[in-house]
Backbone:
């Protein structure tokens, strides 16, 4: 009953979307959902960001000023630091920072603080989806037990998923809509609710069998990119020393049709 009701509220866009963390990931996400007709409430600790949003003022380059302004004017989107309002939404997306500590241990304090605020306001039928980059196991081993302190049970009373953000700031060819979205749930129902939600705004959803796999997908993507950035940086130094034009060399290398991929941002 709860399950069917949340699916149908997502499909007819009467579900209210809450976005926790209104930065580079959260604000564009909130605007995307507002543009397709969801009512969106943004939550942040930063009073300045809340003030700016509620005046219709944009602070993220990937967000179009007029789109944000229109959503605020038509009351489809507003921001608040009153986390009790989380009980008035149906879907909660977490997009808070996950920096590393000095000793390179992940700092989950923002994720935990956001999850604690959600736990106090968790209600039956809620979908909670984590978008922050994190280590495999975070959703099931850290977030799930905090949420279940509410007395509600995942899969039975509420739904929990992980879906990594894949924004490429400035890329005009690959936007949120046409960038495949990986989703993993803590169970089958969670996966289905999350899939239904994301497919309202994204062309192709890639479901995986657990939240942990989805988390590892993000770790793999980031490691793959870091290794390639390091490789090309080393090549640049070497080419400079050997008086070789690195761009000409790369262009020729990327004509190989398999086993190699260029990392370019397509600004067209
Ligand atoms: N920026 C990117 O290009 C990008 C791409 C992919 C993934 N990510 C990941 O997405 C996550 C968010 O990154 P970002 O770049 O949007 O960060 P950001 O610093 O731009 O924004 C995070 C926001 O969360 C708010 N916040 C912190 N604690 C909070 C709490 N307890 N409750 C509510 N709001 C809180 C902050 O005030 C800030 O406005 C990180 O895990 C990051 O690694 C970022």
Residues:
């Amino acid at each position: 009953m709860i399950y069917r009701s949340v699916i149908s509220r997502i499909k007819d866009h009467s579900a209210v979307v809450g976005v926790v963390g209104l930065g580079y990931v959260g604000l564009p996400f909130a605007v995307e959902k507002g543009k397709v007709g969801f009512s969106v409430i943004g939550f942040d600790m930063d009073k300045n960001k809340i003030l700016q949003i509620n005046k219709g003022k944009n602070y993220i380059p990937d967000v179009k000023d007029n789109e944000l302004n229109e959503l605020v004017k038509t009351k489809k989107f507003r921001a608040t630091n009153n986390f009790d309002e989380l009980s008035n939404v149906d879907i909660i997306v977490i997009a808070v920072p996950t920096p590393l500590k000095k000793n390179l241990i992940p700092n989950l304090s923002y994720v935990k603080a956001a999850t604690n605020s959600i736990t106090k306001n968790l209600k039956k039928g809620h979908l909670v989806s984590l978008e922050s980059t994190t280590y495999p196991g975070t959703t099931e081993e850290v977030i799930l037990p905090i949420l279940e302190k509410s007395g509600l049970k995942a899969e039975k009373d509420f739904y929990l998923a992980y879906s990594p953000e894949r924004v490429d700031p400035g890329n005009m060819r690959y936007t949120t809509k046409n960038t495949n979205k990986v989703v993993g749930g803590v169970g089958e129902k969670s996966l289905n609710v999350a899939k239904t939600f994301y497919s309202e705004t994204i062309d192709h959803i890639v479901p995986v069998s657990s939240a942990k796999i989805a988390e590892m997908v993000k770790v793999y993507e980031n490691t793959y990119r870091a290794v390639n950035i390091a490789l090309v940086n080393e090549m640049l130094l070497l080419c400079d020393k050997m008086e070789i034009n690195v761009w000409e060399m790369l262009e020729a290398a990327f004509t190989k049709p398999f086993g190699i991929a260029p990392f370019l941002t397509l600004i067209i």
User: Anything to note?
Assistant: Residues 211-241 form the longest helix (31 residues).
